[in-house]
Write a structure and sequence with these properties.
UDP N-Acetylglucosamine Acyltransferase, domain 1; seven-stranded parallel β-sheet; 24 strands; 15% helix; Trimer_LpxA-like_sf; Carbonic anhydrase/acetyltransferase-like protein (Isoleucine patch superfamily); Transf_Hexapept/Carb_Anhydrase
Length: 198
Amino acid sequence: MLYEHLGARPRIHETAVIAPTAVVSGDVEIGADCQVLHGAVITAEGGPITLGENVIVMENAIVRASSANPVHVGDHVLIGPGASISGAVIGNEVFLATGTRVFNGAHIGDRAEVRINAVVHLRTTLPEDAIVPIGWVAVGDPLLVLPPDRHEEIAAAQRELDFPGYVFGVDRDTPDVMVQLTERYGRSLARHADDRPA
């Protein structure tokens, strides 16, 4: 289904195919020969989303932009089943495998591969032709690509990236961080109350 959100309607190229159970909401532009499969959600939460040409968004994948972090996906990109992209820039010819997670402010270079259940964390730049192995985490600046069993190193790099502050504008050290975060984010998401079919 197509939805108008915050006064913006999706713009879909005539050669793109959107499955009837997919949701495309707001300021979204989908290029030529794209395929958006069943259960996929592409939602512009105050910032635009652009998909280039020949992008495949597979079943149950999520692509979400925010006012602070729009999404741009280049040409010939495959976004695997259950993958999630939030406020990131994806280059051309990128492979995001099943279950991958790409967070706000991330940049993925051309021809990179993020393999099954791997993560490209907040504000992380993955260079051209890079590979994040199955289940591994790309995090930080300078870039670290680490297996999940190196949790302490990942956590240290994540702290420097400041997820609550960068994404939600909430000080991570405040005692009621989750109260502030959920109330602020909830108010933002409530803007969907006025959405209507496009």
